[in-house]
């Protein structure tokens, strides 16, 4: 307390710093993503709002995935709004790799199979020649297996 500092028994520099730290420390992971900093392969409009949907933690990295909300709203045009996407997902109509996903921010990535029960459509997420995600339509039999899986990412000779 005060009487210890007044007598010179406590180092005042450290006590002041200790009082400052709890107010300035970060409180967990960042939960927001500005639209300008969203991955370009999502192809979001620059001027349609300030925020972009941030993918949940999952099997694919933020820069190598596409959230279900972007897929349903921007690409497939099954919904116009956030609320409509939420309704579609909460009705358990969307499967990613054969498993129902109710999180509309779930990160679907390269070679994932997205099945939509109601329309009986199956898509595989692939890259086009420019490195953008393409929803490639596939038949039901093809949707049951993975085309390939990445075992290991390495660099070849001379860093290629």
Helix content: 10-25%
User: In sequence order, what are the helices and strands, one letter per element?
Assistant: HHEEEHHEEEEEE
The number of helical segments is: 4
Question: Strand order within the widest sheet?
Answer: 5-4-7-8-9
How far the N terminus sits from the C terminus, by CA atoms, comes to 62 Å
Radius of gyration: 23 Å
Characterize the main sheet: 5 strands, antiparallel
Main structural class:
alpha+beta
Topology, number of strands: 9
Beta-strand content bin:
15-25%
Write the layout of secondary structure elements.
Layout: H1 2-6, H2 12-24, E1 33-34, E2 51-52, E3 65-67, H3 68-75, H4 82-90, E4 94-96, E5 99-100, E6 107-109, E7 113-116, E8 121-127, E9 133-138
Antiparallel strand pairs: 1-2, 3-6, 4-5, 4-7, 7-8, 8-9
């Amino acid at each position: 307390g005060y009487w210890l500092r007044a007598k010179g028994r406590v180092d005042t520099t450290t006590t002041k710093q200790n009082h400052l730290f709890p107010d300035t420390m970060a409180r967990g992971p960042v939960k927001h993503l500005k639209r300008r900093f969203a991955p370009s392969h999502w192809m979001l409009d620059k001027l349609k709002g300030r925020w972009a949907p941030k993918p949940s933690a999952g099997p694919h990295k933020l820069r190598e995935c596409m959230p279900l909300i972007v897929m349903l709203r921007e690409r497939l045009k099954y919904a116009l709004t956030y609320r409509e996407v939420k309704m579609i997902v909460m009705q358990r109509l969307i499967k990613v790799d054969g498993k129902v996903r109710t999180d509309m921010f779930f990160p679907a990535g390269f070679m994932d199979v997205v099945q939509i029960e109601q329309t009986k459509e199956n898509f595989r997420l692939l890259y086009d020649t420019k490195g953008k995600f393409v929803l490639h339509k596939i038949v039901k039999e093809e949707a049951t297996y993975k085309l390939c899986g990445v075992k290991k990412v390495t660099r070849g000779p001379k860093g290629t």
